[in-house]
Amino acid sequence: MSQNPRITKKFVLKATLINKTAFSISSGEGEFIDSIVVKDANDKPYIPASSLIGVLRSECNKFSPNKTAFDEFFGSGDKPSAICINDSSLNGNGEINLRNGVKIDPKTNIAKDGALYDFECVVAGSEFDFQAELTLRQMHDEKAILEIFDTLCCLIKNGFSIGAKTQNGLGKIKCKKLEICKFDFANDKNAFENYINAKFSNNYEPKFKPEKLSNTTEISLSLNIINSLLIGSTPDEKSDADVVSLNENGEFLLSGTSLKGALRNQALKIANTFAKGDLVDELFGYISEDKEQKAKKSRIKVSETQINKAVRKLHQRIKIDRFSAATIDGALFDSEAIFGSDDMLVNLEITNASKQELGLILLTLKDLCTGFLAVGGNKNIGRGVFSGEIEKVLHNGEDLSKDYERLNAFASEFSNGGAK
């Protein structure tokens, strides 16, 4: 193959990206906030090119067996990258919301001291202008490079996840509009002039259509709030409540972080019963609290779910002195919970789930659907309890939704395999 670095073709990709769920790409700690989103010179949020190239490189690697071409495409060591991606700037307005989180002690089921944290995130529905440029040279294996480029284009078109807490439902990005222009300098005498003058035409169609990997398990649940639900959020200036329900763009949300945290604690209780507590760390991931700070990424993704037709109500409470049975001065507090809703569809996705892990998840979800597992705040007064059912189980491409014998076998595999 020729080692001539002469440019033969360029491909310019333009897209409009929209975040279907809130996302958080941090620029570090703020003065009063644990994590603030990255902003440009005009104090508007944007998606850094470094975050985009990192995510797209990781996803393309799953479909690219040609390592030499992959290294030429994304760059490696002394090899420059053939693809150049720009920062994606905000198109219009982008609202920033403040979310809180807390770490729950699985032994006591109450918040750990000093474990409260908050972080900024860009609210769902914001649009960003994406642009990338591929440079083909004579020394490149054109066919192999274009296969990777087609994969990248299709991944952008189909959507991807970016930023922090993507396994908890945040950072889901969809493509609203995608156009690709090919400039063939070797065969089109007007290509150079068109490129210099930015005369853009949508004249290239990606040929590769990546399919969903077969090593995933997808589970869908239909849930109803039995009484009330409180996924706590910081109140705005218009609210008099101490705590309000998480609300973005006028819609209440069941956050993936709250649901996944509750599922993890319940799974740990079940797993410990069968002396299989290690399964939980393998499935849900962990960060060790020792000096080594060992960590493992979660293999289970829980979606963020919109709650439709819910009604919010203010509930006032007071703290009572146990000795005198009188109210304590200054101990009045109130919370704004939500009541009632349409059916909520919650989606989970597990990568490389073993039979025992799937059995553990099914047992945990059974507790959620039958009201034995509460989610969110004020659980001690009956909030956060659901009724529901498992609607879909797609395991490694096979639909097991109605195959109750196989589903029960997974649960038996966990309980029998886990007992000592």
From TrEMBL:
Domain of life where this protein originates: Bacteria
Pfam family, one: RAMPs
Keyword annotations of the record: Antiviral defense
InterPro entries: CRISPR_Csm3_endoribonuclease, RAMP_III_fam
GO biological process, alphabetically ordered: defense response to virus
CRISPR type III-associated protein domain boundaries: 29-174, 225-387
Protein name: CRISPR-associated RAMP protein
Lineage: Bacteria, Pseudomonadati, Campylobacterota, Epsilonproteobacteria, Campylobacterales
